[in-house]
Amino acid sequence: MKDEQKSKSQLIAELKSLRLQLAHDLSDPNHSNNALCIEKDKLKSILEAMVDGVTIVNENYTIQYVNPALKKDFGEPAGRKCFEYFHRKKEACQDCMNSEVFSGKIKRWEWHSEKTGKTYDLIDTPLRNLDGSVSKLEIFRDITDKKRAEKELQQSRQRYKLATNAGQVGVWDWNLETDEIYMDSCLKALFGYEQSESCNNIADWEKFVHPDDVALLQSKVEEHLDGRNPFFEATHRIIHKDGSVHWMHARGTAIYDLDGKAYRVVGTSNDITRRKLAQDMLKNRSRELGLLNSAGKALVSSLELDQVLATLLDEVQEIIGLTSCSIWLTDKETGDLVCQEAVSQGNQEVRGNILD
Fold first, then answer.
1. Measured between alpha carbons, how far is residue 265 from residues 164, 165, 211, 247 in Å?
2. Which residues are CB-contacts of 74 (< 8 A; sequence separation ≥ 6)?
3. pLDDT of 350 over the 60 cut
4. Contact between 287 and 320 (Cβ < 8 Å)
């Protein structure tokens, strides 16, 4: 594995091993200077070739080493202290890790550089030198792209949550092999349930569905899984937890394995109760306007009461779809209700009937 592909812990372990080897070589009078130079060159080549930035700092904040990757971002140290080089400060940082690192601790933290605009994952570890002193070895790993991706993912989730909440849309994921169904918090809320309440089986879902619409949903699912429809879509009613009836529009699609077998259906459901009620209201209003229009025409064409009433009943019967209907008027003298006009198979028998 290449050095740049190694984890930070592996790199630190290798660097420490090389430093220990150098210390051992110096203590061995029989070891040749040539072998020692080879070990030093090996240590330097590792640091120079690393994609991650590396710096070594002593207890006085003096920079002892900076590798090329770090120089590319921050330039040459030029004798500056670490707080001057990295942070453009005139004195040590208040949150500096040096005291903890020089006491033997390994610290890991994130730092965003205003100079480079990058975010780094830092590991600070104590490093014992050949003369017995201790320095701080610090490794910089650029995680700017990772942090940006995390931020974009978080924003995407926030937008998704806002959109689903505003549109009253919930997401579900049905596992066909186990019959387990995942419902997000928005969908559970549409059904009147808390996120913590358990309803994770398809049998629970069927309990929510209005009894008169269960067969409809089952047939729609079968049509999709059989390939007769490219996706599952159905408008149906549910029984809310509070007992009220809500209208839902469900839409989903199956996911297939390599053998072409469907093993999941993923989709959304949104509450369309207000839209449905508005549609019904418009439909009723249209019927009312149609009836008034017919009544107006009847009144214009004839002033005969029986003829006007007969026209109205014919319109009502057709618009509403009734088998029979009648109009009863109050007799001013007796106060009785009299059937003035009727539309049915036996209308002659109904017309003229009186109710006290």
1. 19, 22, 22, 21
2. 66, 85, 86, 115, 116
3. yes
4. yes
Identify the pLDDT of residue 41: 72
Helix (H) or strand (E) holding 356: none
How many residues make up the chain in this entry?
A: 356
Give the burial class of 94: count Cβ atoms within 10 A of its Cβ; 0-12 exposed, 13-18 middle, 19 or more buried: exposed
C-alpha 245/C-alpha 250 separation (Å) is 16
The β-bridge partners of 238 are: 209, 246
Mean pLDDT, the chain, as a whole number?
81
Tens of pLDDT, residues 76-111: 999 999 999 999 999 998 888 888 999 999 999 999
Burial code (b: 16+ CB inside 10 Å, e: under 16) for 200-212 equals eeeeebeebbbee
The lowest-confidence range among 12-26, 164-178, 310-324 is: 12-26
Q: Is domain 3-142 in CATH 3.40.50.2300, yes or no?
A: no
User: CA torsion angle for 339, 342, 344, 350 (degrees, to 10)?
Assistant: 20
What DSSP string runs through 172-236?
Answer: EEEETTT-BEEE-HHHHHHHT--TTS---BHHHHHHHB-GGGHHHHHHHHHHHHTTSSSSEEEEE
Is-contact 246 271, C-beta < 8 A?
A: yes
Cα angle for residues 239, 243, 245 (degrees, 5° grid) = 45
Check if the beta carbon of residue 288 is closer than 8 Å to that of residue 311. no
pTM for this model (two decimals)? 0.47
What CATH number belongs to 165-276? 3.30.450.20
**Residue 325 pLDDT:** 81
Identical topology for domains 3-142 and 165-276: yes
DSSP secondary-structure letter at 41?
A: H
**Positive or negative torsion for Cα 271, 275, 277, 283:** negative
Instruction: Give the least confident one: 2-6, 125-129, 245-249, 320-324.
Output: 2-6
Dump pLDDT digits (tens) for 7-54: 666 666 666 665 555 555 545 555 545 655 666 677 778 888 889 999
Domain coordinates in residue numbering, the chain? 3-142, 165-276, 284-355
